[in-house]
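Input (6-phosphogluconate dehydrogenase-like protein):
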Amino acid sequence: MVTALPTLGFVGLGHMGGAMVNRLLDAGYPVHGMSRTRERAEPLVARGLHWHETPRSVADAADVVLSSLPDDGALDTVASGSDGVLDGLTPDKIWVDLSTVSPAASTALAQRVRARNAAMLDARCRGAFRRSGPGR
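Output:
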């Protein structure tokens, strides 16, 4: 029996996020994503990333949404509003937040995700970009 890979969404395609998406594409996952500027994501699009203009459209397309953002403000921006990830979450979806944010921001986001009856995993990443590229 072959199980299909889940469709992943990734918001934040900077150094860390971009390196993670490269590894996910290498592994054969279908990945939808967006970042503040498309130009930065062009190498990923060339490798098979499905580009989206808003965080919500990424969430709409994905089974699991991952985010890799630099701070509390960036996380709140991609979560909020009619184009935010939260409006694209349904009870069958999971948000994995890898962002470098405060514990308070993670707790607040988890409460907002729970209010949508979706699941969240707080998996804050810290570390050097040079190690993320090779998948360490």
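The first strand starts at residue 8 and ends at 11.
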